[in-house]
């Protein structure tokens, strides 16, 4: 109780719920706050490159929507999403190799909301949930609100290794995987591993939540098909417009069997009624005008160029050492760096931020549900100009030398 | 287990979480599905009138945003909301009588999301939560996902009656109230009751979640100030652009002490990162150009005219009976109808849908957390043309006659 003289009108300390209790700033937030000074070269972010945003196309589509669908665009709409958008997305996914019906699509407010919704739909406190090791940090944050017991799946240099999945999977309701250009490693699993993952899901009777934000951001070759091609009956795929159109719209979408779409729809009614009608109609218009086909090659080109630049710089500058290695992604936004076991990437980060040409990245420990590897780091390259990529990698190389 | 020959590739029955288990269609959804035929006059919806949408202003603002802030509008943005919008909203609330700083504002994806966020922030399964009787159906749906124990607060013909609040409030973390033009009753509580509610909140040490979607939709006189004027230290006010600008944007906002804003911000990071940047910037632009002051008198005029039309029709056509009465709202979108105790409004609704001039409304039982009164109904008038309001009320009157 407060003991001041305010007649009891001081702000009382709220009794938060168990999941609502603020965790306070994490180590990562503390460090990245230090790194937010403009002179710091940041390999930390997961933002897409704003160079890739189709401003004129969005403006034209937005004007068209107000002129032709204005009252509808500003009104409430169906919880599952507007039918034009569900149809356009189903058509797009079908064209990309996995037959999809509009009624198997549900629109959500970015895939981050999708992660939270699936966790709430499947997980009671203590439910077993399978995740890759490492896995996407933001997904762990969303899932933690549902208080699952995480089980880390076996992963190797080719990504998730379903052949090594065994009894630890029994009793799990759900596995969260990112088979294509994974965040944080950039790794993709091949067709054989996808098939085997489908078999394991059937054997141990769990659902697959496939997060696929980067599938369209391949540099040269199209990646293997979505898990919906291998285990359509038990895969929920989450996709997003954030990397191919605009994150500022907060538009994601599920593709799943109808029993899941129906349950998600009931949940979405309770948690936010529906995603914004206006941005859905704009996005539908962009898709109908085939913006993706015109726009994606340009986005892929930017990302590929930046990835190559960073890979070259790593090859050129990083110390030659048998325990220093990094992934060579064929799409997406991330390179995963592994350091000698005695090097703590958080300490390396602190030193890099204090360097003459300061640089930041995300220490890898944050991407593990249970057993962090502290000698890892995630490097993102897409928003950094090429000369700064080179300068930043030089700083990492010089600083790392002192840790060896 | 399935026993078919599909090699185990049938869609398996998912094991949903306790809160995720679909409840199936509610009685209300079943009935309202019947009522969705175009010939049915619907007093059921809570939609604002699309006549009131400022299409031209939105189009101009949207073009301005792409021309002047395009790359930013399509990019990720701050979890609490874009600063222009938080500043414009703080300014607007301050002008309306409750001093508010931008850092006390947090933007969310419609107030439905706000209800879910507060429930998750405060409630563990079984936590005591105070609600009005009746209260907003959509809020109950959101809160139920956090599995609280609801306690109904004493209400009378003047709305919530804090004088009668007592020991049942002890141990509650939160009270959910709509003091102004309440959904479903249309009632507002006066300044005395607001002061007393503040005192009770201090006495029993609970937080107040004030839902205020209709405060600006007064017909003649401005209503009493928000609870933030009476208990600023423990009130969380939830407001929305849905009724004053456009529900299709899904834009709501919290105003609360910083300790709550910080906790909400941490939660929002995990559940959807942030609300769409683009619609936030468009809304900020509309507010900066003083759209509210130009636009709101027009919206209030439409709503007042429809309310008067329905009140006149009820007075003219409903059977004279001491137990038939209805509220006379001074703002908002709803009239609450009370019927003789032996009349079940759900049965009345079925008969009204089957009438020659069919009409639908929402039976009142759905608005009670614990102790439904079946002889009540919510009537909404804003999207119905005046001649149809009269025709619909005639149907209710004639049908009701048969139940007396």
What does this structure look like?
Two copies of one chain form a homodimer. The first copy, chain A, is of the alpha/beta class and 404 residues long. Chain A contains eleven helices and 15 strands. A seven-stranded mixed β-sheet of chain A has the order 2-10-9-8-7-3-4, sandwiched between helices. Chain A has a four-stranded antiparallel β-sheet with strand order 11-12-15-14. In chain A, helix 2 (55-73) crosses helix 8 (277-288). The mean pLDDT of chain A is 93.
Task: Name some characteristics of this structure.
homodimer, alpha/beta, Aspartate Aminotransferase, domain 1, 2 domains
- The run of helices and strands of chain A is HEHHEHEHEEEEHEEEHHHEEHEEEH
Broad shape of chain A: globular
Number of domains of chain A: 2
The CATH C-level class name of the largest domain in chain A: Alpha Beta
Oligomer: homodimer
Strand residue percentage of chain A: 5-15%
Q: By CATH's scheme, which homologous superfamily of the largest domain in chain A applies?
A: Type I PLP-dependent aspartate aminotransferase-like (Major domain)
In spatial order, strands of the major sheet of chain A run 2-10-9-8-7-3-4
Distance between the termini of chain A: 53 Å
Largest interface, with counts of residues having CB < 8 Å to the other chain, equals: A-B, 84 and 84 residues
Main sheet specs of chain A: 7 strands, mixed
The CATH level-2 architecture of the largest domain in chain A is identified as: 3-Layer(aba) Sandwich
Q: Please tally the β strands of chain A and state the result.
A: 15
Mean pLDDT of chain A: 93
Number of helices of chain A: 11
Q: Give the uncertain stretches of chain A in residue-range form.
A: none
Coarse structural class of chain A: alpha/beta
Rg over C-alpha atoms of chain A, rounded to the nearest angstrom: 22 Å
Q: What is the helical fraction of chain A, as a range of percent?
A: 25-40%
